[in-house]
Amino acid sequence: MNDVSNLHIAVVGGGPGGYAAAFLAADLGMKVTLIDPEANPGGVCLYRGCIPSKALLHVAKLIDESRHAKNWGIEYSDPKIDVPRLRAWKDSVITKLTGGLGQLSKQRSVRYIQGTAAFESSNALRISKAGGADETLSFDRIILATGSRPAIIPSLKLDSPRVMDSTSALNVSDIPGRLLVIGGGYIGLELGSVYAALGSKVSVVEMTAGLLPGADRDLVLPLYKRLEKSFEAILLNTTVAGMKEEAKGIRVTFSSQQGAATERVFDKVLVSVGRKPNSEIPGLDRTKVQVNPRGFIQINKQLQTDDPVIYAIGDVVGEPMLAHKASHEGRTAVEAIAGHKVAFEPNAIPAVVFTDPEIAWCGLTETQAQKDNRTIKVAKFPWAASGRALTLDRTEGMTKLIIDPESERVLGVGIVGVSAGEMISEGVLAVEMAALAGDLELTIHPHPTLSETIMEAAEVFYGRATDIYRPKK
Ligand SMILES: Cc1cc2nc3c(=O)[nH]c(=O)nc-3n(C[C@H](O)[C@H](O)[C@H](O)COP(=O)(O)OP(=O)(O)OC[C@H]3O[C@@H](n4cnc5c(N)ncnc54)[C@H](O)[C@@H]3O)c2cc1C
C-alpha cells in the first residue's frame, strides 16, 4: 500500500460524487478539503434532485393508492393538501440528510469550505467563501465534481414565476390548475406525476415519438397507459414553438408533425428538457483540462483529465447523469489517486424512473441490441402471472431478461412495475457477475414477492415457467 497521508486532495462540488470521493479519501488517510456553495454537502441530488423528488413521489403514491382503494371496498374522502406542511416535510428530509453529511465530514476531519472555487493554476484554487472572504488553496490532486444544471432552450426563455425548472417545481410554491411539462424524460414525468396527484391537470409535450426516449418501448407502455389516465394530455411528436405570458397564464404554441399549430393557456409551465454539465469552472483555461463539444470534461478510465493532477467525476464528465454513477466514479478516482490498480468500467449502471409504475433497467437494452445488430434472446415474464402482483392489484408489470443465446449469459434486465427500482439491483448483480439465465432460475426466490418474476423470466427462457402454460409443439 502506498503511503497517502501526505497527499492533500481538494474536491470541488459536494454532490454524491464529491462527498463520496472526499469521504473515501479521508478514510484512506489523505488530507481532504471539500468545497461547495451550500452549508452542508449534498449537491443537486439531496437539495434539488433525487431526494426531494422521491419524497414528493411518495406522497403522490399515497394519494393515488387511497383513491384506488375504493376498488377494494375502502373509501377515503378526497385529500386536503396543506402545501406549506408538505413543503416543510420535504425540506425536513433534506435538512436531516445534508446535516448528517455535514456531521460525517467533521467526524472524518474533512475540511468543508462553504464557497465557490476557481482555478489559479493546476495546483491552486481561489475560493470565494460564503460571508465574503477569499482563500487560496494549494493541493496535490483535485477532483472536480461540479455536476450539472437544468438545460434551457434560449427561444423559450421567459422570465416569469409561471415558468419553472425542476428546482422551482420541487419547491411546490402552489398547485397550478393547469400545468404543462415540456419534455417527456424521467424528470418531467416524475414531477408531472407529483403535480397530477396533488390535483393539477397535467399535460406533457415531447418532441420525439414516445415518452422516455432511449428506454425499451415495452417497458414504457404500461406507464404510458397509466399516465394517459392521470394526465390531461400527452402530446408526442410535438414541439413548443413559442410561449407568451398573459394575465391569466402562459400561452403556449405547439407545432406538431401533423401540421397546424395549436395554442393553449397554462397556469404554469415546467421546462424539463435535459441537463447541462457545469464545466465552465472559472480559471479552467489555466489548466490542461479538455472539455468535449457536448460540454463534458474529458477523462480516462481512472477519471483523470488531460491535466495529470486533475480528476473529474459525476454529471460533469458524461452520461448517464445519475447519482450512483457519480459516487462510484468518485471512489474510483480516489483509489486511482491512492495508486490502486483500478478503472471505471461497469457492465451495468442501473437506471430507474420513479413514476408509478416504476421502470428500471440495466446492462444491455433491447433497443441498443437492435441498434448494434446483436443477436439476443429476450425472455419476458408478465406480472399478470405473479401472485404478489395480484395481491397488490398491479398486474400491468413485466420483467424481462436479455440473454446471449450462445452462452446463456444475462446481458441486461428490464423491469416495469411497482418497486421495479428496488428489484433492479438483482439484475445489476447478475450482469456484473456474468450470471447465466440458469443461475437466476436455480436461485430460490422468496414467495410471494415481485422478485420471483426475475427467476420466472429465466424459466421462460428455458420454456419451463411454472406459472405460464405453453402448449407442447
Ligand atoms: C429533479 C431531479 C431528480 C433526480 N433524480 C435522480 C434519481 O432519482 N436518481 C439518480 O441517480 N439521479 C437523479 N438525479 C440526478 C442526480 O441528482 C445527479 O446525477 C447527481 O446529483 C450528480 O452528482 P454530482 O456529484 O456529479 O453533482 P451534483 O449533485 O450536481 O453536485 C455538484 C455540486 O457542485 C457545486 N459546484 C459547481 N460548481 C462549483 C464551483 N466552482 N465551486 C464549488 N462548488 C461548485 C454545485 O453547486 C453542486 O452543489 C436527479 C436530478 C434532478 C434534477
Provide key terms for this protein.
473 residues; alpha/beta; seven-stranded mixed β-sheet; 32% helix; globular; binds flavin-adenine dinucleotide
User: What value does the average pLDDT take?
Assistant: 96
Segments where pLDDT lies below 50 for 5+ residues? none
First CA to last CA: what distance?
61 Å
Total helical elements? 13
CA-based gyration radius:
24 Å
Number of DSSP strand runs: 22
> Largest sheet, if any?
7 strands, mixed
3D shape: globular
Helix and strand composition category: alpha/beta
Helical content class: 25-40%
Could you state the oligomeric state of the chains shown?
Answer: single chain
What ligand molecules are bound, each kind once? flavin-adenine dinucleotide
Strand order of the largest sheet: 5-4-3-2-1-6-17
Content of β-strand:
15-25%
Quick overview:
With 473 residues, this protein is of the alpha/beta class.
Write the layout of secondary structure elements.
Layout: E1 8-12, H1 16-27, E2 31-36, H2 43-48, H3 50-68, H4 83-107, E3 111-121, E4 124-129, E5 134-138, E6 141-144, E7 148-150, E8 163-164, H5 166-170, E9 178-182, H6 186-198, E10 201-205, H7 217-230, E11 233-235, E12 238-246, E13 249-256, E14 261-266, E15 268-271, E16 275-277, E17 310-312, H8 323-337, E18 351-353, E19 358-363, H9 366-371, E20 377-382, H10 387-391, E21 398-403, E22 410-417, H11 420-432, H12 437-442, H13 452-461
Parallel strand pairs: 1-2, 1-6, 2-3, 6-17, 8-15, 9-10, 9-15, 10-11
Antiparallel strand pairs: 3-4, 4-5, 7-16, 12-13, 13-14, 18-19, 19-22, 20-21, 21-22
Helix pairs in contact: 1-8, 3-4, 3-6
This protein binds flavin-adenine dinucleotide (FAD).
